[in-house]
Amino acid sequence: MTLAIFDLDGTLLEGDSDYSWGQFLVEQKLVDVxxxxxxxxxxxxxxxxxxxxxxxxxxxxLAPLSRFTENELHDLHQAFMESKIRPMIHQKxxxxxxxHRSKDHFLLIITATxxxxxxxxSAELKMDHLIxxxxxxxxxKYTGNIVGVPSFQAGKVTRLNDWLKETGxxxxxxYFYSDSHNDLPLLELVDFPVAxxxxxxxxxxxxxxxxxxxSLRDSA
Length: 220
Description:
It is built from nine helices and eight strands. The chain is α/β, with parallel strands linked by helices.
């Protein structure tokens, strides 16, 4: 099956689910408000600049999960979906997903945002599979640690190649949609790279290489 691969944050979503989860925790006063907001803002700027230490960031973002039960986290995530995520989903993004689904393409999200945050979003979008950093759980409790290679920058290629070997899928005829220069290693790997509401760096690269540059925002 042809793979239609999507980045999530800034691509299918008009916003960043990871950063927004941090905002949500701050708004709910479930973390030290000032310290967490300052760190969350700093990590987001590092991501934009392409200098993010993904392991340091994942330790930061996963730490709060260890403080709650599974039921508490489920309820928190439902509230997060309603208040933060659903407003970020535009009809143009849903139409693009549906256009690939109608061609019997395999729909895959690959994201640097951890599986706890992104799993329900992937399900909401009715994707076939999700590749995301996997938070460690012991006895049904999050530890705050990560399992395996984070799917960030070149790590997306590593995780995707591992998945291809496991499943027998190939990249023949594959698409990848992304907004970020951080995804250049994977954009260069697929047959049909597409820039989506791209950052300045990726906009320039897409123009130089003749890649399509589209918007998935309903207002554009």
